[in-house]
């Protein structure tokens, strides 16, 4: 939580990033205290008013009035809260509108959101240069971040395990994915290029670290904090050189005054409602689609298809276009309403039963 680097007496709650809020929510919070959610432990919250961190609960009206997980607080949210018992406990009354919300599809078949963090300015996407290096997964992270209206920065850890030439080759292989983005290969082991990351982090701005388990998110955070705080867990040698694990989402303040949300590793990265994210992540393909001769071009064999022409000229890889199409199909499927999806599942179930019945008759 925030007690590792407490806010200054002069800054107070503004050290939590309040400068990004408009005056309206500040005025509406006059009857209660303005606070920020700095940690979430399942259904329990820790909030900070800039002086102290306390456990908080939702009012019954707030809790039961939420229609989905999106309506509930997450790390980084600003809330209106009532502090009591000498500021040892608090009750959250209201969620202040967010400027950004980083979220992903819940793991498994459940069509719902898992909230990662709110009111984030920049998201650092971490991959390691060893076995975790995965351009397709990087694309998915970028889609998720672009859809949330957050600026992405791409970080590759464990550069000390490779020669400079090998690092350059790996970065060159994903150059078409990161056009216009800051990309840094670094090592938490020897500190190489960590200072480049630090220069990107400004006081009172909120950042988050996202990536799979074992890529070095918590190790990097330890370096930025200047101390060893995260729990560590050993793993097989073939997986990594020692894994730091985060089991919950938490907002921390760096000595520089920047705010960082550390998140648990993500094994599965599904996306919901990501039309904007796809368009920004695959911006060159979206632009080519607008250049096609026909508005309903299927990009297969039509004359005047700008996408097929770009592939034939070697300006666009077939694999990248296939990834684009696959994500669009996934988004279209996931964006069906719960009712429509249930209807589709029921229809499929009836078809299976019918086929089994026909086999028995034969």
Tell me about this structure.
Helices cover 32% and strands 23% of the residues. With 362 residues, the chain is an alpha/beta fold. The chain folds into three domains: 94 residues, Beta Barrel (OB fold (Dihydrolipoamide Acetyltransferase, E2P)); 150 residues, Rossmann fold (3-Layer(aba) Sandwich), CATH 3.40.50; 58 residues, Probable gtpase engc, domain 3 (Ribonucleotide Reductase Protein R1, domain 1, Orthogonal Bundle). The protein has a five-stranded mixed beta barrel with strand order 1-2-3-5-4. Strands 6-7 form a two-stranded antiparallel ribbon. Helix 7 crosses helix 8.
Write out key terms for the chains shown.
single chain; 362 residues; alpha/beta; Rossmann fold; Ribonucleotide Reductase Protein R1, domain 1; 3 domains; 5-stranded mixed barrel; 11 helices; 15 strands; 32% helix; 23% strand
Would you summarize the structure shown here?
The chain has 362 residues and is α/β, with parallel strands linked by helices. It has helices spanning 23-28, 60-65, 135-147, 164-173, 194-200, 217-225, 275-281, 283-291, 306-312, 318-334, 338-361; strands spanning 33-41, 44-48, 53-58, 78-84, 89-95, 101-105, 113-118, 122-128, 151-157, 183-185, 206-210, 231-233, 243-245, 249-253, 259-262.
Secondary structure elements and their pairing?
Layout: H1 23-28, E1 33-41, E2 44-48, E3 53-58, H2 60-65, E4 78-84, E5 89-95, E6 101-105, E7 113-118, E8 122-128, H3 135-147, E9 151-157, H4 164-173, E10 183-185, H5 194-200, E11 206-210, H6 217-225, E12 231-233, E13 243-245, E14 249-253, E15 259-262, H7 275-281, H8 283-291, H9 306-312, H10 318-334, H11 338-361
Parallel strand pairs: 3-5, 8-9, 8-11, 9-10, 11-15
Antiparallel strand pairs: 1-2, 1-4, 1-14, 2-3, 4-5, 6-7, 12-13, 14-15
């Amino acid at each position: 939580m925030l007690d590792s680097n407490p806010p200054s007496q002069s800054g107070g709650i503004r050290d939590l990033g309040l400068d990004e809020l408009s005056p309206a929510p500040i005025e509406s919070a006059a009857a209660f205290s303005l606070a920020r959610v700095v940690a979430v432990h399942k259904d329990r919250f820790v909030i900070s008013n800039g002086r102290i961190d306390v456990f908080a609960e939702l009012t019954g009206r707030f809790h039961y009035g939420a229609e989905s997980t999106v309506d509930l607080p997450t790390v980084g949210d600003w809330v209106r809260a009532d502090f009591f018992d000498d500021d040892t406990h608090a009750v959250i009354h209201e969620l202040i509108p967010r400027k950004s919300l980083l979220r992903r599809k819940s793991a498994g078949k459940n069509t719902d959101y898992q909230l990662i963090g709110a009111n984030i300015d920049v998201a650092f996407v971490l991959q390691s240069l060893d076995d975790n290096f995965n351009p397709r997964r990087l694309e998915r992270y970028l889609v998720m971040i672009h859809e949330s209206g957050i600026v992405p920065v791409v970080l590759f850890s464990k550069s000390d395990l490779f020669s400079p030439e090998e690092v350059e080759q790996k970065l060159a292989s994903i150059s078409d994915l990161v056009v216009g983005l800051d990309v840094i290969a670094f090592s938490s082991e020897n500190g190489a290029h960590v200072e480049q990351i630090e220069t990107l982090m400004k006081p009172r701005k909120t950042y988050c670290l996202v990536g799979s388990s074992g890529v070095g998110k918590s190790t990097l955070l330890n370096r930025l904090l200047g101390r060893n705080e995260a729990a560590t867990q050993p793993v097989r040698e073939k997986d990594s050189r020692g894994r730091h694990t985060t089991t919950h989402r938490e907002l921390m303040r760096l000595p520089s005054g920047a705010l960082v949300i550390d998140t648990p590793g993500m094994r599965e990265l599904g996306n919901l409602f990501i039309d904007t994210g796809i368009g920004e992540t695959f911006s060159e393909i979206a632009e080519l689609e607008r250049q096609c001769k026909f508005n309903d071009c299927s990009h297969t064999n039509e004359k005047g298809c700008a996408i097929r022409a770009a592939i034939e000229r070697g300006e666009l890889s077939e694999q990248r276009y296939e990834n684009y199409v696959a994500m669009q199909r996934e988004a279209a499927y996931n964006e069906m309403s719960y009712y429509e999806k249930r209807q589709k599942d029921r229809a499929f179930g009836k078809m299976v039963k019918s086929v089994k019945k026909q086999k028995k008759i034969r």
